[in-house]
Amino acid sequence: MKQLIEFIPLLLFFSVWAMDERIVSLGSLDIGVGGIFNAAGFLLVASVVTYGILLLVQKKLDKFQWITLGGVVFFCSLTIVFQSVTFLKLKAPIVNWIFASIFFASRYFSDKPAIEHMMGHAIDAPKDVWYRLNKLWIIYFITLGVVNLIVAYTLSEATWLQFKVFGNLILTFVFVLGQMPMIAKYAIIEEGESASDSNSEESA
């Protein structure tokens, strides 16, 4: 659910970009829609609002949410101020490489790798499994950053934005799905769930 909420700013960004470039009047307020720079403005505002709501509801944001929000604010602001799409093209690669650096550093500066901090509440896996998963995520983030950079600078703007909004989401979903066989057997089953299963078996 949280991931779907975080996807809203990107969806809004893509929708605004796809519109014909024009000024829309909302009461006394004139808002520009259409085009990459207007879309960047919507992405900036929508991200601040979305993560602000998450902060109020959750009482906190995790470090990856803060980095994502910081990346959006920084790169969208530069894109709008300098009217240069170069900054927006660099956002995804740099944010992904920052994530890779955090996952890499966590092995040396923490008693747990980053992936265990994120998923340890739901999975009770041995240390070697956590380190293997952590290494996979490092490789994934580095690769995803490179792929985003190549797509941004070699393909059309439309293809780049489609990949930025939908491609990254699909690739991450497939990557996570690919790890399921490795971690499924370590999943923590809640007591209530276990009791329910036992009752079902007894009834049967």
How would you characterize the overall build of this protein?
- The protein has 204 residues and is mostly helical.
- It has two domains: 1-82, no CATH class; 85-190.
- It has helices at 2-18, 36-58, 63-82, 86-109, 114-119, 127-154, 157-183, 191-203; strands spanning 22-26, 29-33.
- α2 (36-58) packs antiparallel against α3 (63-82) and α6 (127-154) packs antiparallel against α7.
- The relative contact order is 0.09.
- Residues 191-204 have low confidence and may be disordered.
- InterPro entries: YciB.
- Plays a role in cell envelope biogenesis, maintenance of cell envelope integrity and membrane homeostasis.
- It is found in: Cell inner membrane.
- One of its GO terms (cellular component) is plasma membrane.
Would you kindly provide a brief summary of this structure?
The protein has 204 residues and is mainly alpha-helical. Helices cover 77% and strands 5% of the residues.
How would the blueprint of this fold be written?
Elements: H1 2-18, E1 22-26, E2 29-33, H2 36-58, H3 63-82, H4 86-109, H5 114-119, H6 127-154, H7 157-183, H8 191-203
Antiparallel strand pairs: 1-2
Organism: OM182 bacterium MED-G28
InterPro entries: YciB
Protein name: Inner membrane-spanning protein YciB
Give structural attributes.
mainly alpha, 2 domains, two-stranded antiparallel sheet, 8 helices, 5% strand, disordered C terminus, cell membrane, transmembrane helix, Inner membrane-spanning protein YciB, cell inner membrane, YciB
